[in-house]
Amino acid sequence: MSLLRSRIIPLSIVTLSLIGCGTIETNMPVENQAEVSVIERSDAPTDNPVEYAIWQAEQQPTEALAAPFYLHAAKLKAVAQSYSQAQQLLEDHVINVDFNDRFDGLLLYSRVSAAQNSPLLAIQALSQARELPVAELPQNRINLLTTHAEVMTTLEIWPSVVRNRVKLSTILPPTAQPENEMLLWSAVQNLTDNELSYLKTTNLPLLPGWLEISRILRNQDLNVDQQLQQFNRWQVNNPSHPASINPPADFKIMASLDDQLPNAFAILLPMSKELQTASSAILDGMLRQYYTNTGKRPRIDIIDTDQYEDFSEAYQTALDTEAEIIIGPLRKQNVARLPSLVTDIPTIALNQLDTMQAHQNLYHFSLNVDDDIRELMSFAKQEGAVTSAILAIQDTWALRQSDQFQRLAEDSDTPVLESLSYEDTPLGRQRAIKSLLQIDESEARISSVAQWTGQSIETTSRARQDLDYVYYVGKMDNAKQIRPLIDFYFANDIPMLASQTLHDGKPSSNTKNEDIERIIFTEVPALSQQPSKTNSPYVLQRLNALGNDSYLIASRLPLFTLVRSAKLSAKTGIITLNEEGIFNRRPNILTYKKGALVDAKQEYRESEAY
């Protein structure tokens, strides 16, 4: 089954897109349709605009004359967020009819199809609109590129968004340029490093400049002052570039942060007991980033929370150092104490609770699996995958992660058809896969038919056809036993998706390539290159990346709080700050191909339509 079907779109975004691009009108669209006749009769339903438009359409002698009225009714339905009804009107009476406004109808159909979780239909409508002769008209070209950019934004296919926004920047009127530049910059900052490298080969005017200033912000070897110096040099060399004339908000705010950048940090970590190894990895990452930056460095005080019976005493010690930002703690029970302790000094906890409320000056940054699951769900929906199933080993941590996926799937309206855990034995694995793929039901049907007919049936049990992907929770050695079983039951087109917990080390030398292919998993960028530069366990390398990025976040905290759209491309992923004070990560998505670790998005990249 191909991973190409639909994507859930927030309704408010689509409505704003419709209004913002001028596709919603409230008057009957008859002024440019000389052949259309508006019927005036006493029995017309004039009290309801939609019913009136449909009634008028029904009075027309041909479908071409009726289409403008149906288009108007569909626009009104879209404004009311009745997307399924708008989509049906357009399918039945507009998009396949040859009339003057068919182009506008196809653009509207693209948007409502996106709202109806049908991105393929949305993209197909855009392709049809592009083939119409009127698509070459200047305003129509703008509308086409704008609609395509918005659909790709909802799908989070950022390279395509960037390409379309760059093209728009060369043809939009001056009044529309600032908003487009803001959206373009946001898309550029959402690019992973792999995607940014991919776009460097794209020959579009202005694009190299946008990528270059993004590279400046991604360079973790530079402090804020050095990044500003590089940007200023780029401005001098590129005075006519839009980003030089009107710099992105990130650079504007950074230029005003001299007095707001922290001069002293306090770090709260458990350095003596069972979390000593984890804490050492985090601290090593912090200090490595600390010494990477040249120039002025803040003072750092390290406090071992294991040396205090009461965490509040450790936190008070951090305050006594006159720290301007506190990083930590790590233990969940200590994180739970923070809301009653944090006052004026910003604190970045390195863990988070299952349920949290926003608290002033309190932030959370961690390797929470929720971020990995959200990114996997987003990727699956980009590729058209709708339905899922959960398969987990019976370890406590795996069952907990299974519950996390179930909760987030409910939040995002992702149908979970099955949720199973299994005993990791040959019989346990076989039973789980047969149940997951409903092979046992297929076998029962075959047996029943044979019993009814009194004849032996020569056929093969087949896997269910309604399952798009399996979210798997286990380690790589577990997963490589599952993949061949799924293939054995003729379900080799069903991919397995997993969080970074699956990727616990390099595959063993006796691992067959086909046993780990079509297993798609998240990973922090720091571990996304093969081979790894260190032999330390992957979990410690991730914690090292966490420490590196926590220092970067602390160093740039004023930027995140002042520019809510700010993004940081770092070792744990693309980092953003949400309204609850949680720093979310967008990790990389990887898979194995012929034994090599590759970017899964490259394997499933969309075709170049524009």
From TrEMBL:
PROSITE patterns recorded for this chain? PROKAR_LIPOPROTEIN
InterPro entries cross-referenced by the UniProt entry: LpoA, Peripla_BP_I
Give this protein's Gene Ontology molecular function annotations: enzyme regulator activity
Question: Which Pfam families does UniProt cross-reference here?
Answer: LppC (PF04348)
User: What domain of life does the native source organism fall in?
Assistant: Bacteria
- Name the keywords, alphabetized: Membrane
Task: Give a Gene Ontology cellular component term annotated to this protein.
Answer: periplasmic side of cell outer membrane
Q: Which GO terms describe its biological process?
A: peptidoglycan biosynthetic process
- Chain coiled-coil ranges: none
Official protein name in the record? Penicillin-binding protein activator
Q: Which organism is it from?
A: Marinomonas piezotolerans
